[in-house]
Each structure stands twice: as C-alpha cells, then as structure tokens.
Amino acid sequence: MNANPFLGVFFHWLGGLASGSFYVPYRFVKKWAWEVYWLAGGFFSWIIAPWFFAWLLVPDPVGIIQQADRRTIFLAYLFGALWGLGGLTFGLTMRYLGIGLGMAVALGYCAAVGTLTPPIIENRFGELLSTNSGLVTLAGVLVCLTGIAFTGLAGMSKERELSEEQKRAAVREFNFTKGFLVATFSGVLSACFAIGLFYGKPIMKTAEQVLRADHRSDLWSNLPVLVVVLLGGFTTNFLWCTLLLIKNRTARQYVSRTFAPGRNEKETIIETAIDAPSEEVVRGAPRRQGSNDRVPLLGNYLFSALAGTTWYLQFFFYSMGQMRMGKYEFSSWTLHMASIIIFSSLWGMALKEWRGSSRKTRRLLSAGLATLIFSTLVVGYGNYLATLIK
C-alpha cells in the first residue's frame, strides 16, 4: 500500500461530494413514491455499479472473493446488512429530536463508532495514545465531532426561528429520552458500514496482491470488498422497499405511464446517517406538481440510475482514499463523515435552505463547516506523521 495521506484526503473529499450530491437527481423524478425510486436507484447503488467497477478495474473479482474464508465474507455481509438496518430508525430520530439535534447525535455516534471500532478490535488504541501521529489523528477525530456539534447547533437554532406551526411540523413528537436512544441505535448501526469494510480487509489484501501481480494500481483493492458489504445493504433495503411496495400498492408505478397514487403518500423511508444530510437538503423531492398525469418513465429510470450511481461513487472514492491513508486507514471514516456534512451543507446553501436564517445561525453553520474542513487536514497530517515512522 503506497501511503499518500493528503491525496487520500482529496479522494475522501470527492467521496463526500458524491454523497452530498446523490439525492439531487431524485428531485427530477416525477410521480413515483419514495420506495419506487429508492429501489430503482438502489439497484445501481448496491448491485450494478459495484460489480461494474469491480469487473472493470480488478482481475477476476469473483475469484478474489472466493479465496476469502467464510467468516470474512459473512461478517462483511452482516455488517453491511446492519448498516441498512440502522436506517429503519433514523426517521424516528428526526421525529423525536428534530433535524438539528437528531442529525448531530446520530452523525456523532456514526463518526465516532465507525472510526474508533477498528483500532479497538485490533488492540491498537494504546498505540494511538503513545505516538505523536496517533494523538494528532485522534485530535482530528475530536475536531470532526466538534464540527458536527456546531452544525447541529446551527440546525437547532434554525428550528427555533421557525413559526409555531412550522415547529410542530418539524418536531411533531419531541421526546429527548426516546430520541437519544433511537439516535444512538441508528448512529451506531449506520457506522457498521465501516466495520464491514474492516472485516473485509482479507479480501482487500488478496485483491492488492492480484493487482500488483497484474501490474495494476492498488487503488482498486477495496472494490471487491464493497461488492460484499453493499450486498448486505441491498438485502435490508430491498426487503423494506418490497414491504412498502406491497403495503402501499405502488409497484405498478414501475410500468404505469399515468400517475398511479399509492395508499400512503407519507411512508416511513429508510435512510442511514450517511444518507440523511443529502436527503434533508432536498426534502421536497420528488416533485409532483402539475395537473398532467403522464409519468416520464424513461426520465425517472435515468435520474434514478444517475442518483444510484452517484451514491456508489462516494464509496468508490472512499476506497481509493483509504488505500492512500497509510497506517491509520481507519481514520478514513472520519474524513468521509466530515466531507459528507461539508458538501451536503453547501448544497443546502445553494438550494437556499438557510435563506431567512439569522446571522447567529449562519455563523454557527460557518463555524461548523470551517471546523470540519480543518478536521480533515488534521487527520491527514496525523496520517502523514505516521508515514515518517520507520
């Protein structure tokens, strides 16, 4: 593995840009229920794109996966499925805590658990506390959590500035105890994606050897691992969307050229902490205005495919960044979470979500973004220091 931490940080920024942007194409999907367009895009996110890029860039990805022992494959798949399961409760976090506080708590857990669990499992946490490079890297993690707290405060400040009617709509059933417990559950399980990648490292090591033997870049070594982890995520999302398609009678929307409303337009969606910032900045999606009942089927499929592929690209670039972080590659999760929030917030500003907010709220948001950007540089520097240790 050729370490180049600052190049790794750049790749993680690209991943954050993809994650912060993937929901935007869904704005142009018309007259489809959430479960319809989410599953259509999901086939590209979790099945088509992972296999396409693995076959394109890695020699015999199936053979590489088959060389791994059953425990490795099972754990990578299992934690991918648990990551998807965490999304089942994320909507309750918003309901009980509101967007600002709910996102801050869930994302904080997600960032901390996803980053720190791998070195704890490997019994490397003591090493981090005993070296300058480890301490700087951990400091970067703490700075990231501080940035998440600032953005959460900005969201809470914005909510306080809403009218009473808007507040009731935004936080219908505020309950701090319930919300905190649900946010903990959702945030921890959302971090299981990083743990799945960790348990898939034997697959990555095999892919790295195969790529080097074939005189190819080891940047693509994690792509076969993504195939397994995302298959787990696909399982959870597919089962939930299928239940909604049956319950809401919306499966016909896949083929109907005229608008076919389902039984429940307010279905509970599934999204994990890494999806939520993107969804929140385009909460009006999909747009269903207009009196024309014609459904642009081709356009809906194309925009869903674009959104799904963009979603996958976050982990395509994540895997590249992780391969360049070096000794402390576990810190990639912190970089990813920080980058997601940065670019999601920038989309929110571009889409005028923060228009009308007070100067105090905008200052909190700016402080949060600046802190998150700084955290990526601190983590990158900590990883750079690690490359100097012989």
Which residues sit in consecutive blocks of at least 5 with pLDDT less than 50?
Answer: 284-290
Distance between the termini: 15 Å
Query: Measured on Cα atoms, how large is the radius of gyration?
Result: 21 Å
Helix/strand class: mainly alpha
Which H/E pattern describes the elements?
HHHHHHHHHHHHHHHHH
Q: Please state the overall shape, judged from the principal axes of the Cα atoms.
A: globular
Taking the sheet with the most strands, its summary is: none
Count of helical regions = 17
Number of domains: 1
User: Mean pLDDT across all residues, rounded?
Assistant: 83
How many E strands? Answer: 0
Percent in strands: under 5%
Helical residue percent band:
over 70%
Provide structural commentary.
The structure is a single chain. The protein has helices at 5-21, 34-57, 61-67, 70-86, 90-97, 99-121, 125-130, 132-160, 164-170, 176-190, 192-199, 201-213, 223-248, 276-280, 297-325, 332-350, 359-387. It is globular and about 65 Å long. The two termini are 15 Å apart. The chain has one domain (5-286, 294-387). The protein contains 17 helices and no strands. The chain is mainly alpha-helical and 390 residues long. Helix 8 packs parallel to helix 16 (332-350).
